[in-house]
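RECORD TYPE: inverse folding
INPUT: structure tokens
STRUCTURE:
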């Protein structure tokens, strides 16, 4: 009986990630590493059920990126700067950075329409300047993106949906 409870304690104290979580991280990391190796852009979309899952995935992917001697820069759209692509393109030393973009927002907010419009209008800059970027999206943001920014949606390289 004691051994059984020890096993439960050990299992419950270890970090638990579903297979799809690990697979999703592996796909994102592989895409990023290949983008650096081949000196090409990478526009990745990571879709999550919850913000907690999103934060865990961001942290885990950031650790992998740092291991490969690259940097992560986080970008969020706000009322002063709804155009995240222009913000990214103004960043110096972009060649060694993976950008994490999150919190695009709920489409009911008028600012979000500006954000989506800016993504749609400046999408080609991501490719021209060989930007490596992961857009961390909720399911609602992912559902709205092709509707409000269809040209940006068409430019993406990969969509990875996390089950947990």
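DESIGNED SEQUENCE:
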């Amino acid at each position: 009986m004691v051994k059984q409870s020890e096993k439960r304690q050990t299992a419950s104290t270890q970090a638990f990630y579903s297979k799809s979580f690990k697979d999703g991280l592996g796909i994102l990391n592989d895409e990023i590493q290949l983008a650096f190796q081949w000196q090409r852009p990478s526009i990745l979309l990571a879709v999550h059920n919850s913000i907690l899952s999103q934060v865990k995935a961001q942290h885990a992917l950031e650790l992998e990126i740092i291991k490969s001697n690259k940097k992560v820069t986080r970008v969020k759209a706000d009322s002063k700067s709804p155009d995240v692509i222009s913000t990214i393109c103004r960043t110096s030393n972009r060649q060694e950075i993976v950008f994490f973009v999150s919190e695009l927002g709920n489409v009911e907010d008028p600012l979000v329409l500006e954000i989506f419009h800016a993504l749609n209008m400046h999408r080609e800059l991501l490719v021209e300047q060989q930007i490596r970027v992961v857009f961390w999206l909720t399911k609602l943001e992912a559902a709205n993106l092709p509707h409000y920014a269809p040209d940006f949606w068409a430019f993406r390289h990969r969509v990875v949906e996390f089950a947990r």
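NOTES: The chain is about 55% helix and 20% strand.
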